[in-house]
Amino acid sequence: MEANPPQISAEKPSVAIADKNLPFLEKVMAKSGLPDIFDARDITEVVFRVMRDLMTTEAADRVEAELHEPAEVTKDKSLQLEVADLWHDTNPIVAFLSRVRPPLQPAGIFRGIDSDRFLFRVENEGGMPPNVDTKEVVKAVFSATKDELSSERIQEIATWLPDKIRQVWEEA
């Protein structure tokens, strides 16, 4: 990574890339091929949204409780978040609905989220930049997330994920 650091888009404010102890969003950016830190933030929020849609409210709350770490150290207030802040949905209606409805599992009365739908939602809701592989971005978010969680929480999340996405989680 030191020989080939991630690039930051010239159209958006730049944020320096730390060489050691990379903050959460920089990890996502570096591992995913995303062009800038703002894309990393936006797509991380979408990956988290789809993950929460698969989980019970209680399980999502347990994950959130372990994600209280700075996401990015910067003067840019739009990036001054804890990882737990990324876990919350920025859309108040979606946030409310995700707390009152049951998990969207592949089988059941509510339309479920299988592996293909998981990737489809991330790609379409996240505004995926061209030439970036959605599965690699999801894997990067998973990897950075797992760095913040206990082994118990990592195992719990795996139980909620559909087959191919669970495999990506385990590889991350």
Concise account of the structure shown:
This protein is an all-alpha fold. The protein is built from 9 helices and no strands.
Q: How would you describe this structure to a colleague?
A:
This protein is an all-alpha fold and 172 residues long. It has a single domain (35-171), classed as Globin-like, CATH 1.10.490.110. The protein has helices at 24-32, 37-54, 57-66, 83-87, 92-100, 115-125, 134-146, 151-160, 163-171.
Query: In percent, how helical is the residue content?
Result: 40-55%
Our estimate of the beta-strand percent is under 5%
CATH class annotation: Mainly Alpha
- Would you identify the regions where 5 or more consecutive residues have pLDDT less than 50? 12-21
Strand and helix order: HHHHHHHHH
Distance between the termini: 17 Å
Find the CATH topology: Globin-like
